[in-house]
Write a structure and sequence with these properties.
The chain has 161 residues and is an alpha+beta fold. 25% of the residues lie in helices and 32% in strands. The strands form three sheets. Strands 1-2-3-4 form a four-stranded antiparallel sheet, with no helix packed on it. A three-stranded antiparallel sheet has the order 5-6-7. It has a two-stranded antiparallel sheet with strand order 8-9.
Length: 161
């Protein structure tokens, strides 16, 4: 069973002068000393191929949240991970992927049914948002040798304009 973090919450006092809040989009806003900083906790993505559900529908867009320490520790006690350490990413992604298309009950079975290219994409996406804190990648055009940044969360699929 997965635990869900409530999408809306207010941190601080009940009179509305609290220290911060979490909006429905997963952005945490923390106010200290009158300033406002925000931290994004949920990231949208577009799978290269898409998850095909039991009815044959294809789901491509999804949401992944930042991992907590618990998300990374709990799978280490899982017998499937102990028997096969490569299964760690399947269990971990089953905990942090919140939605793929209209599918909201994401678990290891859903992650196992992804195409290999989609699994590789999600593993890289997880690493980018949790280790690097963003979904941008620096790339260089092979034709003109110009360097620029692309957002891997994108909205379009690779190779499409």
């Amino acid at each position: 069973m997965r635990r869900k973090i409530a999408p809306t919450a207010v941190v601080g006092e009940k009179d509305g002068t609290g220290a911060g809040s979490v909006d429905a989009g997963g952005t945490v806003e923390v106010r200290a000393g009158g300033g406002a900083d925000s931290m994004r906790t949920e990231f949208t993505f577009e799978l290269p191929r898409g998850y095909v559900d039991e009815t044959g529908s294809v789901h491509r867009s999804g949401v992944m949240r930042l991992a907590t320490a618990r998300d990374e520790l709990v799978p280490l006690r899982d017998d499937r991970v102990r028997e096969n350490p490569a299964y760690l990413s399947v269990v971990l992604l089953g905990r942090v992927v919140e939605r793929i298309g209209s599918v909201t009950d994401i678990h290891t079975g859903v992650i196992e049914d992804l195409f290999a290219s989609d699994l590789a994409f999600l593993q890289d996406f997880y690493r980018r948002i949790n280790a690097e804190g963003h979904t941008r990648a620096q790339v260089t055009c092979p034709s003109c040798d110009t360097a620029f940044a692309v957002d891997l969360a994108g909205g379009g699929r690779l190779g499409e304009s």
